[in-house]
């Protein structure tokens, strides 16, 4: 293993419980692979734009679109994020549960990396992921007792990540 992509989605940053859990997973991976490099994508510190018209038009095979205010279209962000993901041998996601599901920052990242014709293909048999499988460690923090609130976060991730080929999901609570 050469590279771990570490996605963090908490507004609490390094103080969040999900971040601390993810650090434990990374430490275990480093014990097994001391030479591994960790690439961090902090979705709160560097928020991603939502999908824009260039991205949508490209998927719809239309031309045109304008760059995001940060000077990069969401299509360019998508390309960058997909390349980061492709280059990783393992993925570690640190996320809180917000309002029973994924925080908007993680949803924006997923919207960029789950891309038809790039990370999955739509076939008569359904959506088929194009990325090679690799371990995905998902560190989740939840407010309150797990059995006393609805949880759409874990089932959503169990559905969306295999869509792009990531099936080796390991949840850490």
Write the layout of secondary structure elements.
Layout (H helix, E strand, L loop, with lengths): L2 E6 L8 H16 L4 E6 L10 H7 L14 H14 L2 E7 L7 H10 L6 E4 L2 E4 L6 E6 L11 H11 L5 E4 L1
Parallel strand pairs: 1-2, 1-3, 3-6, 6-7
Antiparallel strand pairs: 4-5
Helix pairs in contact: 2-3, 3-4
Count of alpha and pi helical runs: 5
Shape: globular
- How do the strands of the widest beta sheet line up side by side? 2-1-3-6-7
* Model regions low in confidence, pLDDT < 50 over at least 5 residues: 62-69
Strand content: 15-25%
Chain-averaged pLDDT: 90
Fraction of helical residues: 25-40%
SSE topology string: EHEHHEHEEEHE
Explain how this protein is built.
The protein is of the alpha/beta class. It has one domain: Rossmann fold (3-Layer(aba) Sandwich), CATH 3.40.50.360. 34% of the residues lie in helices and 21% in strands. It contains five helices and seven strands, in the order E-H-E-H-H-E-H-E-E-E-H-E. The strands form two sheets. A five-stranded parallel beta sheet has the order 2-1-3-6-7. It has a two-stranded antiparallel sheet with strand order 4-5. Residues 62-69 have low confidence and may be disordered.
């Amino acid at each position: 293993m050469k590279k771990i992509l570490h996605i963090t989605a908490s507004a609490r940053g390094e103080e969040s419980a999900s971040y601390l859990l993810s650090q434990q997973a990374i430490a275990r991976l480093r014990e097994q692979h001391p030479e591994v490099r960790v690439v961090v994508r902090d979705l709160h510190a560097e928020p991603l734009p939502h999908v824009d018209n260039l991205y949508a038009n490209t998927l719809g095979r239309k031309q045109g679109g304008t760059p995001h205010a940060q000077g990069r279209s969401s299509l360019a962000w998508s390309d960058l994020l997909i390349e980061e993901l492709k280059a990783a041998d393992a993925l570690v996601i640190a996320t809180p549960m917000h309002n029973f599901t994924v925080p908007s920052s993680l949803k924006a990242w997923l919207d960029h990396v789950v891309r038809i014709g790039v990370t999955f293909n739509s076939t008569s048999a359904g959506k088929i992921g194009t990325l090679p499988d690799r371990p995905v460690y998902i560190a989740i923090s939840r407010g309150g007792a797990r059995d006393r609130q609805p949880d759409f976060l874990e089932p959503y991730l169990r559905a969306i990540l295999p869509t792009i080929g990531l099936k080796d999901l390991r949840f850490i609570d």
